[in-house]
Design goal:
The protein is mostly helical and 196 residues long. Helix content is 76%, strand content 0%. The termini are far apart.
Length: 196
């Protein structure tokens, strides 16, 4: 009789353990798929910006004596940014840093373009340019929202990877923490504005 009780207890423990493991695995898969979905939104927002840039460059090119070097830098930065791809299921800190660096290069080139436009009053007043500038500003806001959504999804996933009992399933099935977007080094300091 004791032998059957031990067998029944072991069977119940095994059944409960199997159900817990299955549930943990499924929640990790769902969390990882959420990351993939949100990452696709991040890429989509960056792609929208990349798609707008040729229109902006062509509008600015219409200004006969506009600085060609500035336009070339924007075009090259766009090409580099669109070539940098990440698979969110296997993303590493280094890959995320490379992606952010490529996007930051494009941000800098666009900023220089928009600053140099200040010298051209007729371009600043051009309706097509103003429309594109507004679309790019809106897209930058979308990018920020999608990056924040990505970080939230990664945070939820990483919590599951680190918490028991899901941590056991993560170790058993090879789920590891994912990197998040991080602020650029030095961005915590306010920019110095000097009108002299």
């Amino acid at each position: 009789m004791k032998k059957w009780i031990v067998i029944i207890v072991l069977a119940v423990v095994a059944l409960f353990g199997g159900m817990t493991l299955s549930s943990s695995y499924n929640s990790l898969v769902k969390a990882e798929e959420d990351i993939n979905s949100v990452w696709a939104n991040v890429e989509s927002a960056y792609q929208r910006r990349a798609d707008l840039i040729p229109n902006l460059v062509n509008t600015v090119k219409g200004q006969a004596n506009f600085e060609k070097e500035t336009l070339t830098n924007v075009i090259e930065a766009r090409a580099k940014a669109t070539q940098t791809k990440i698979d969110p299921t296997n993303a590493t800190e280094e890959q995320m840093a490379q992606f952010q660096q490529a996007q930051q290069g494009l941000n800098s080139a666009l900023s220089r373009l928009l600053v140099s436009v200040e010298k051209y009053p007729e371009l600043k007043a051009h309706e097509g340019f103003l429309n594109l500038q507004a679309q790019i500003e809106g897209t930058e806001n979308r990018i920020n929202v999608e990056r924040n959504n990505f970080n939230a999804a990664v945070k939820e996933y990483n919590k599951q990877v680190r918490q028991l009992p899901t941590k056991l399933a993560a170790l058993l099935f090879g789920f590891s923490p994912k990197p998040q977007f991080k602020a650029k080094v030095g961005s915590e300091k306010a920019p110095v504005v000097n009108f002299n």
